[in-house]
Amino acid sequence: MSDETKYENTEQSEQSEQSEQGEQGAADAPVRFDTKIAVLLRDDLETWQRLNVTAFLVSGLGTALPEVVGEPYQDADGTAYLPMFRQPVLVFEGGKEAVTAAHERAVRRGLPTAVFTTDLFGTGHDRANRAAVAAVGKDRLDLVGIAVHGPRNSVDKVLKGARMHR
Predict the structure, then answer these.
(1) What is the 3 state secondary structure string of the chain?
(2) Global pTM value
């Protein structure tokens, strides 16, 4: 059984448990998303790099695709918190070739995609980041990660050859 299948089975079990807990309202109703948010990281990154790249990549999706963001949170004391994605973010890993191939497939399919290149580890702000990406053609980007959003089956095809991050 693949790691993604395990994740989906766990998600289905949790949804099933929620629906069995009684009629507590729509918040407990099972949800199966038609879309998928996924991050693919190169498997040769240091831990701090994986975390940093993931954070940067998903920030692009949240700002460009407001429909993927849920409502703000609030605790029982009334303290307000920022909204987050309304669906899970699946994180995958693969070699340099897998990331490059996934990027090509995502671009070819026209899926919303965020990129992070090795050059961005040496920059210190957004303008420098954008300049570093703009200096290189899409087929020559030294990608260390991508984030993609789209219909589940399309994202699955983009990620062909990648494995769930461990």
Answers:
(1) CCHHHHHHHHHHHHHHHHHHCCCCCHHHCCCCCCEEEEEEEECCCCHHHHHHHHHHHHHHHHHHCHHHECCCEECCCCCEECCCECCCEEEEEECHHHHHHHHHHHHHHCCCEEEEEHHHHHCCCHHHHHHHHHCCCHHHCCEEEEEEEEEHHHHHHHCCCCEECC
(2) 0.81
